[in-house]
Predict the structure.
Amino acid sequence: MSNTVYRCAALSAVKHDYVPRAVHAHPAFEVVVVADDPQVPDWAHERNEDFAAELGVPYVRDVAAALADHGVQVAVVSSEAERHCDLSVRAAEAGMHVVQDKPMSTSLAECDRLVGAVQQAGVRFLLWNRNLLPALVQAQQELQRGAIGALRAIHVDFYFAKDAGPPKGSRKPGFPPIDWLARQLEAHADGSDGGVGTAAMGELQIEGIYPLGYIHALTGSPVRRVFARTAAHFHQANADNDVDDLATVTLEMESGVLGSLCIGRIGAASHPDIGEIKLHLVGSEGALVVTEARPEVGIYYRGQPATEYPNVRVADSNNFLLMEQFKTAIETGADTLLDARAGRDIAATVAAAIESGRTGQPVEVA
Amino acid sequence: MTCYALVGAGAADRYADALLRLPDVCVAAVVDPDAGGRGAAARRLGAGLQAASLPELLAGHSDCCSGVLVHGAAAARLDDAAEAVRHGKHVLLELPPAADAARLQALGEQCAAADVCLMVGGTLRFLPSQQVLKQRLDSGKLGELGLLRAHRWHAAAGGVTGSVPDWQDLAAPYLDLANWLFDDRPERVYARAAGSDYVQIHLGFRAGGMALIDVSAGLPPGDGYQSVSVIGSTGAGYADDHHNRALLFAGGNPAARDPGEGNHDLAGELAEFAAAAAAGRAAQVTGADAHAALQVAAAAAASAASGDVAVRREDRYE
């Protein structure tokens, strides 16, 4: 491996700046500029400027100029979801390797465009994921050593114990529906703005990449067919914008493995930690139950703020390992851990699940 | 003292433990075709009567019991229950095989005509863990139930019938649990199976409620696993073997030890049966409840075979 330090441009940091932060934290990558399009709204410019100031790098209101003028090799995209693919496509077409926040896009056509652009440019693309959390790595190792035989079924529970504004049913007669973007901007303060953008997104779209990424990593198989139930069960913003905050999906993989996903933003009161996130794997010779959050340390004390998670994850090298593997991919031409094609397949699974939830019928994944 | 006849010597140990909590209930007779087994069971339970079959017992000693606890071979349960009803006995019937759904419905009508109590046992409703979930839901603390998630994995030879397990039979108690917790029957049923020992069943209830249940009978010999989560609009409950296991260190990787829930479920079931029969009221788990669960199991089987969604049309699934 080389000692190269890759120069990175953060193309918008309006959502989860943990992605550009994680990239910047790896010794082989350095964010040297933050950039965005000039026409983005003022709040987006403000967030970008704040992030650039914190890193001590310039903020450029011109993506093409930033890529051209700062000797950049990697673009890190963390914009609103509806702009993800467009920024990534432009970066790839400029010859940049790309690290992109989730979800891949709100549009499957945009995902296809990105797959084409990455392939055409011959660059590496990494869709951000949590597949290298310690518990996931261990699960992969157990599967690989044959501890439970051949995998027959995989089930993931992915409940985020976070609130999302007023509870469902709280809107009084005569009051307007909650504006999605306004709600997301308000949520930025507590980090629950994973759906930031003008296009409303349900939990399947916002967070589905994580559990489906686990399933992708553990099965190595695309999903062929889904059956889903979806509901806006908890939050007024989801009900007002006709997007799910609770969903269940039956998954039929091309490999023949069966699976399922339960996902929801179930409210802060519903779990003492960030949420119950578990994997249940059924094999031909045994089974495996995994809690995604382990290892962790429980901390409880008098006066503990309600907003502080009492369980602290430890020995989590996910971000470091993702970037380490991304560096390897750049330098060897290997696939990244979750490349554009895999990300597109997950987006297609999500789209099929949403359609199934609407129709009440199984849907073939495009 | 309320006395019952027990059909199926294999249940004697559990009853002996459960009866310790119920001083006003006894088992007066044990019925089993295996003489050795029924003799041991009768001694264990302090029962004075034994018979090879229920007709034999009731022909000679009809007044020995006010009710019959039917736990025998799955294929004979409905016959034994019907025989008991013909003699005016109340019946606690272990959940019959899914294939007997139609006969169970007929038994319910027979019981109603004879004015005897029919309660179906062997469900999950009296497990302490599930009682807590139900109580918290009923109290309103968890809000409106949105999701039930259940995993149940048995060892390969650990089916409820004691023979080759059929996933419909293994899933039926969980389907009853779903109906009970949602207080409804699903509108849509979608199932995928892998072989005869694995199934996952996806249920859709009115108002957006949903359930996902997977059942496997393919674990290696040893303990099974159960996990039930309920997600409500204002709270959630997690009854999970994963949380409740102890670690035993005896060299190598530690073994997980399950303290289990004892026989509290059977004691609760029996107490409810006795109370319902004495009061002349419907038991908490009626034949109609069990029939509904078996109907869903049948719908799941049809869905697994066809790949289509089974949709409820009034009292049946298409």
